Structure to design on (1079 residues):
C-alpha cells in the first residue's frame, strides 16, 4: 500500500528540475516503475512531480542530418511502432517491443525505461540490501540465478532495461536538464557500476531530468537486432539479451557494437566481441568466435552459471541471423 | 425426492450444447458484485502486521503509536482477550489446544514469514496501512529452514517442537515389489522433483464483515460458503444459525479458498470491537506467503517392466513439503491405481519447513505424481522399444486396484489415449523430423486419473411460478467455472424453461441449503443430480395439478417444453393455465443428492498430448500445440467444459515451464512474492492450437446426470506431457520442474561436457 505523498504537475522543465533537487521528491513519468517502488516501500517520497504536462518532452522529432530526437516521455509503444525506427534503428524498435506487456508499453516512457531502478528481487523485496542502505548483498549467499556475471562488486543486480543496451549500441546521447542548465552525455557513460556507487544507477545529479535521447543518422550498410531471452513470453525481464549494431562494407564488418542486457549492473558492452568481428565477413565461424570472446572474463555467482552459455547462444544466433 | 429415482437422460435439448454463461454479461461488464467489491455504510478497512522473518519469537508489540494514528478505530494483537482463538489445530478437532502443533490467531512464535502479529481497523485502507507500519514489534529472530531435505537433517532448526518430520511415513502396499523387480526385464529408477506453486487467483483472499446484534454476516471470497460457516461459527463461539456467509461471485480459488482465513476472523473481531462493518482483503504479496500453495515434492520412483510391456512393480518413495503447520502432501494415488500392476509399494513422508502451510491446489498431489510416473512410463516404453501410447494402453486397468479391484462405473482411459492420439496425429508427429537446431521439436503424451470425492450431501430447491418462469436455489458457489450455467441447464432440460427465465440464488448460507464447498471437481456431479431431482419433483407436482384439472390419470400426461400434454397429444395445457398453480403461486421441489454407487468406483480419466520446441542454444522451451482428451462423463455445457480444460492446460504450462516459489535460504523469506518474479503463464505462453476432446461413455451408474468432474483432471498430466515432449525433442530427461532456460542450459552444458 502506498504511503501518503503530495502531487505536483510541473508547468516547466525548470520547475520540475528545481522540485526534483530535494531528496524527498521523485519524478513521475509513466509511473510503471516508480509506483511499484513506492508501493513496496523500496523508495520513500513525500511528493511526486509529474512531467506529464510537459509537451516538449513528448514525441519523436527529426534530428540534424537525418537522426532522430526522442522525447523522454515518448511511450515504448510509440518507439516500437515508429516507421523510421522500425526501418533504420530496428534494434531499438525490437527492444522497445520486448518490454513488459502492451499495457506497460503504452504507459511506460523511454526516459523512465532508462532511469528505472534495479529489478533484483532482494532490492524490490523486503530485504535491507546495500543499495537500500543496508550492509548485505543478499544475492551473495542467497539465490543468485537472476544476477550478474559481469561488473558486480558488493552488489550483483542486473540492469533491467531492454532499450538501454539498444541505445548504447546505437551510440545514442542523452540530454539532461538540471537547475544549472543542460548537458549532453553519451548513453555509454550514463550508467554507473556498483564499484562507483551503491545507491544510484545513473550519473544523474539531484534535480537533473532526462529530457531527450538523440540518435545519429543511421550508418550506411547498418544492420541491427535485439534478442532477448526470458522465462515467459511476455511481462518479463531479460535473463540475458544482446543488442547488436553492425555496419557492413564490401562484405565485411566495418563497425560493430555488441551490448548485452541482463548480465551486468549496466548495459554491458563487449568490446572483445566487437574486435572479433570487425574487419571480417559475418559468418558462422566469426559468430562462434565473437560469442566466445564475449563471455571471457565472466564471473558467475553460485546460481547463474547458465548465463555464460546463454550469452554465447544468443550471440551465435543473433550474429548468424544478421549475416543473412 | 430422492435423486436415484431419475432415469438416465437420452437425447438432451439444452445439456451438452455450447451455451454462454448465464452471468457472462455481469462478469464481463463489471456489474457482478464480488466480495471485494462490497462496500457497506460506515465500513472500516483493516490491515495486518505480519512477521518479516523466516522464524521469530515476538518479544513485544507496541501498539501505542499506531493507536494514535489518524483514522485508527481499533487495534488487535495477542494481548487482547478476544484474539485468543486457536488455529492450525489438526483437521477434525477445531480448537484442540492439546495438539503439539496448535497455535493461535496471533501466536508469538511465528514459524514463517507472513504469520499474523497484529491488526488495525481504520477509516481508510491507507490509514490502516500507515498504522500497521507504525506498530513497533521486537523479535527474537530464530534460525529457519526452508528446504525439506535440509529440514530433516540432524541439527536443523526446529520448525515444530515435535520435530520437522510430520508423522511416520505412510505406506500403501500391494503384492511384493522385490518379487516384481526380480521378474522384470528392465528396472529403472529416477528421482523427480516439482516446485512449490502459488494459487494466484484473480481475486485475492478477503472478507467484508458486519454484525447485526449477535448475528454475523460475512461477504467472503471462497469456494463454498458452508465450508467457511462452520469453522467461523466455532471460532466465534456462535451457533450456525447466527453466522451467514455470502459468496455469490468469487474470483477464483483453485483450492486455496476452501479454508477459513485468519483474515475473516480478524475482521469479525475488529468489527465487534468497533461496532462497524470491516473490510479486510489481503495484498497480492500477502497472498503469496500466507494462504496456501502446492507443496514441492521429491519423488523417487522405481519401476520394473517385462519386454512385452507388462508392468511388474512400482515403488514410490515420496517427500512432501508441508509448510510450517500440518497440511497433507500425499501424491501416491496414481502410482497405485492408474496402471495395472500387481506389486506396488508407496511410502510417503512429510517435512515441516518455515514457509506458509500448503493448501489443496487443483488436484492436490496428482500433477506432481504425473510428473514422475508419466516420465517414468515414457522412459520404460523407450527402453523396451514400445510406443508410449501403446505402452499405456497395454497397462490400462479396468478396475480400481486401490479399492479391492472394484470396477469403475465407466473407464475411458483407453478411449482418451486412442482418440487423443488420433486427433494429435501421434504416429506421424512422432516420426516427423525434429529439426537441426537451434530449435528442435518433439511430441509427448501423458495420461492421468483423478480420485474424485463422494457426491453427497447436497440439497437444492427449484421453484416454478405461475407464469412459467422458475428459480433455482442452491448452496454451491460458482468459481468462475460456470456452475450457475450448468445447473440452470439442468432445470431448463427438465422443465423446458429457457435459461433467461430462471432466477438463480446461490452460495449464501442464509438463503440456500447445504452443499460441501467446490473442491475435488465435485460440484457438477454432487449438485447437478440434486438439481435434477428437485426439478423432477416440480414436474411431478405439476403433472398432479394438470391431472386434477383435466380429469385424466397422471400416467396419461407428459411434461413437454413447459407444457402438459395428454397422451396422443389431444390436449395441451400451458403452465400458466394451471388453476391450482395460480392459486398457490409456486410449486417447490426439493432435491437431495442420492448416495454414490457402493460396489463401483467413479473416476474421470485423461490423456494429453503436447508438441514443444526447444532452442538448444538458449534453453527456451515453447509449447506449440496441445490435445486434451477427457473422460469426465457427460459434458454439461460444451463451452464451459472447453474453458475449464484450457484453463487446466494453461496452469499445467505454468507448472511445467515457469512457476516456482523461491525461498531465500539465509533469511527464510520468499524472494519472488510478486507477479513479475513469480511467473504465471501469459497468453503468449499458451499455444493457439489447442484441441479438447470429450469422451463420453454414457455412464448411467455414477449418478443421474452421468457426470464425473473436469476441473482437476484438466491440469493433471499437462506438465508431464510437456516434459515427455521435451525429452523427445532434446534427448534430455528433465526431472526437476520447471523447465526454465536456466535448468535446460545447465543440462545441455552437462551433456556437452560429457561429450
Amino acid at each position: 500500500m502506498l504511503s501518503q505523498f503530495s502531487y505536483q504537475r510541473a508547468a516547466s522543465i525548470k520547475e520540475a528540475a528545481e522540485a526534483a533537487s530535494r531528496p524527498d521528491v521523485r519524478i513521475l513519468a509513466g509511473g510503471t516503475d516508480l509506483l511499484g517502488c513506492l508501493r513496496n516501500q523500496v523508495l520513500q517520497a513525500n511528493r511526486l512531480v509529474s512531467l506529464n504536462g510537459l509537451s516538449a518532452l513528448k514525441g519523436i522529432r527529426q534530428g540534424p542530418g537525418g537522426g532522430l530526437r526522442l522525447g523522454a516521455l515518448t511511450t515504448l509503444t510509440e518507439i516500437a511502432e515508429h516507421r523510421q525506427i522500425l526501418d533504420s534503428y530496428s534494434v531499438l524498435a525490437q527492444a522497445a517491443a520486448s518490454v513488459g506487456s502492451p499495457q506497460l508499453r503504452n504507459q511506460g516512457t523511454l526516459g523512465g525505461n532508462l532511469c528505472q531502478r534495479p529489478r533484483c528481487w532482494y532490492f524490490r523485496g523486503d530485504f535491507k540490501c546495500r543499495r537500500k542502505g543496508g550492509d548485505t548483498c543478499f544475492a551473495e549467499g542467497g539465490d543468485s540465478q537472476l544476477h550478474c556475471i559481469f561488473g558486480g562488486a558488493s552488489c550483483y543486480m542486473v540492469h533491467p532495461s531492454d532499450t538501454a543496451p539498444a541505445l548504447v549500441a546505437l551510440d545514442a546521447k542523452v540530454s539532461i536538464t538540471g537547475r544549472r542548465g543542460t548537458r549532453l552525455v553519451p548513453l555509454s557513460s550514463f550508467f554507473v557500476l556498483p564499484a562507483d556507487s551503491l545507491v544510484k544507477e545513473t550519473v544523474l545529479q539531484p534535480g537533473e531530468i532526462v529530457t531527450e535521447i538523440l540518435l545519429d543518422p543511421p550508418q550506411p550498410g547498418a544492420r541491427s537486432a535485439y534478442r532477448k531471452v526470458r522465462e515467459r513470453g511476455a511481462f518479463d525481464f531479460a535473463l540475458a539479451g544482446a543488442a547488436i549494431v553492425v555496419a557492413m562494407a564490401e562484405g565485411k564488418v566495418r563497425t560493430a557494437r555488441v551490448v548485452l542486457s541482463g548480465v551486468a549492473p549496466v548495459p554491458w558492452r563487449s568490446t572483445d566481441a566487437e574486435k572479433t568481428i570487425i574487419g571480417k565477413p559475418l559468418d558462422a565461424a566469426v559468430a562462434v568466435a565473437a560469442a566466445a570472446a564475449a563471455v571471457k572474463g565472466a564471473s558467475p555467482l553460485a546460481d547463474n552459471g547458465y548465463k555464460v552459455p546463454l550469452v554465447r547462444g544468443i550471440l551465435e544466433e543473433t550474429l548468424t541471423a544478421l549475416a543473412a | 425426492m430422492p435423486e436415484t429415482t431419475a432415469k438416465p437422460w437420452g437425447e438432451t435439448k439444452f445439456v451438452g450444447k455450447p451455451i454462454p454463461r448465464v452471468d457472462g454479461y455481469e462478469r464481463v461488464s463489471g456489474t457482478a458484485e464480488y466480495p471485494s467489491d462490497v462496500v457497506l455504510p460506515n465500513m472500516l478497512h483493516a490491515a495486518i502486521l505480519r512477521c518479516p522473518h523466516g522464524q521469530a519469537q515476538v518479544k513485544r508489540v507496541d501498539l501505542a503509536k499506531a493507536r494514535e494514528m489518524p483514522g485508527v478505530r481499533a487495534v488487535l494483537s495477542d494481548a487482547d482477550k478476544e484474539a485468543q482463538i486457536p488455529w492450525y489445530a489438526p483437521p477434525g478437532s477445531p480448537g484442540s489446544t492439546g495438539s503439539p502443533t496448535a497455535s493461535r490467531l496471533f501466536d508469538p512464535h511465528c514459524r514463517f514469514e507472513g504469520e499474523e502479529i497484529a491488526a488495525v481497523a481504520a477509516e481508510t485502507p491507507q490509514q490502516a496501512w500507515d498504522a500497521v507500519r507504525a506498530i513497533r514489534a521486537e523479535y527474537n529472530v530464530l534460525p529457519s529452514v526452508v528446504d525439506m531435505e535440509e529440514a530433516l537433517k540432524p541439527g536443523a532448526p526446529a520448525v515444530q517442537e515435535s520435530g520437522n518430520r510430520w508423522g511416520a511415513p505412510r505406506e500403501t502396499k500391494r503384492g511384493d515389489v522385490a518379487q516384481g523387480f526380480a521378474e522384470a526385464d528392465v528396472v529403472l529408477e529416477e528421482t523427480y522433483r516439482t516446485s512449490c506453486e502459488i494459487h494466484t487467483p484473480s481475486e485475492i483472499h478477503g472478507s467484508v464483515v458486519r454484525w447485526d446484534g449477535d448475528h454475523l454476516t460475512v461477504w467472503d471470497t471462497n469456494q463454498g460458503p458452508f465450508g467457511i460457516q462452520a469453522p467461523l461459527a466455532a471460532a466465534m463461539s456462535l451457533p450456525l444459525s447466527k453466522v451467514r456467509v455470502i459468496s455469490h461471485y468469487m474470483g477464483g480459488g483453485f483450492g486455496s479458498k476452501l479454508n477459513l482465513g485468519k483474515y475473516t476472523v480478524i475482521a469479525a473481531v475488529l468489527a465487534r470491537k468497533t461496532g462497524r462493518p470491516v473490510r479486510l482483503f489481503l495484498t497480492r504479496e500477502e497472498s503469496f506467503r500466507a494462504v496456501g500453495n502446492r507443496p514441492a515434492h521429491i519423488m523417487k520412483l522405481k519401476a520394473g517392466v517385462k519386454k512385452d510391456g507388462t508392468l511388474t512393480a512400482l515403488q514410490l518413495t515420496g517427500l512432501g513439503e508441508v509448510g510450517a503447520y500440518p497440511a497433507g502432501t500425499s501424491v501416491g494415488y496414481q502410482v497405485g491405481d492408474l496402471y495395472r500392476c500387481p506389486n506396488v509399494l508407496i511410502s510417503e513422508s512429510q517435512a515441516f519447513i518455515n514457509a506458509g502451510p500448503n493448501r489443496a491446489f487443483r488436484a492436490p498431489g496428482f500433477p506432481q505424481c504425473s510428473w514422475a510416473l508419466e516420465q517414468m512410463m515414457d522412459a520404460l516404453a523407450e527402453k523396451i522399444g514400445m510406443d508410449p501410447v501403446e505402452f499405456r494402453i497395454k497397462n490400462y486397468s479396468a478396475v480400481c486396484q486401490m479399492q479391492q479391484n472394484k470396477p469403475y462405473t465407466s473407464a475411458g482411459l483407453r478411449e482418451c489415449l486412442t482418440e487423443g492420439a488420433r486427433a494429435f496425429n501421434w504416429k506421424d508427429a512422432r516420426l516427423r523430423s525434429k529439426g537441426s537446431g537451434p530449435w528442435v521439436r518433439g511430441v509427448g503424451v501423458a495420461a492421468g486419473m483423478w480420485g474424485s470425492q463422494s457426491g453427497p450431501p447436497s440439497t437444492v430447491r427449484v421453484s416454478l411460478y405461475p407464469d412459467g418462469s422458475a428459480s433455482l436455489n442452491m448452496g454451491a458457489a460458482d468459481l468462475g467455472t460456470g456452475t450457475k450455467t450448468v445447473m440452470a441447464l439442468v432445470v431448463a432440460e427438465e422443465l423446458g424453461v429457457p435459461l433467461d427465465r430462471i432466477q438463480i440464488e446461490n452460495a449464501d448460507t442464509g438463503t440456500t441449503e447445504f452443499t460441501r464447498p467446490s473442491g475435488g471437481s465435485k460440484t457438477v456431479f454432487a449438485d447437478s443430480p440434486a438439481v435434477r431431482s428437485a426439478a423432477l419433483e416440480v414436474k411431478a407436482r405439476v403433472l398432479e395439478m394438470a391431472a386434477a384439472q383435466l380429469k385424466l390419470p397422471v400416467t396419461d400426461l407428459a411434461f413437454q417444453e413447459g407444457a402438459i400434454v395428454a397422451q396422443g397429444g389431444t390436449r395441451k395445457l400451458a403452465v400458466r393455465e394451471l388453476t391450482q398453480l395460480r392459486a398457490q403461486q409456486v410449486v417447490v421441489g426439493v432435491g437431495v443428492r442420492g448416495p454414490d454407487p457402493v460396489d463401483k468406483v467413479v473416476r474421470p480419466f485423461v490423456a494429453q498430448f503436447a508438441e514443444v520446441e526447444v532452442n538448444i542454444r538458449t534453453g527456451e522451451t515453447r509449447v506449440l500445440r496441445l490435445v486434451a482428451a477427457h473422460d469426465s462423463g457427460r459434458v454439461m455445457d460444451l463451452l464451459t467444459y472447453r474453458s475449464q480444460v484450457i484453463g487446466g492446460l494453461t496452469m499445467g504450462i505454468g507448472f511445467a515451464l515457469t512457476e516456482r516459489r523461491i525461498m531465500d535460504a539465509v533469511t527464510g523469506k520468499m524472494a519472488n512474492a510478486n507477479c513479475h518474479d513469480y511467473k504465471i503463464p501469459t497468453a503468449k505462453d499458451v499455444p493457439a492450437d489447442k484441441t479438447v476432446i470429450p469422451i463420453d461413455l454414457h455412464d448411467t451408474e455414477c449418478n443421474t446426470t452421468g457426470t464425473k468432474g473436469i476441473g482437476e483432471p484438466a491440469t493433471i498430466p499437462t506438465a508431464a506431457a510437456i516434459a515427455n515432449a521435451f525429452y523427445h525433442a532434446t534427448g534430455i530427461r528433465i526431472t526437476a520442474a520447471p523447465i526454465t532456460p536456466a535448468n535446460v542450459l545447465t543440462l545441455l552444458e552437462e551433456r556437452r561436457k560429457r561429450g
About this structure: Residues 91-95 of chain B have pLDDT under 50 and may be disordered.
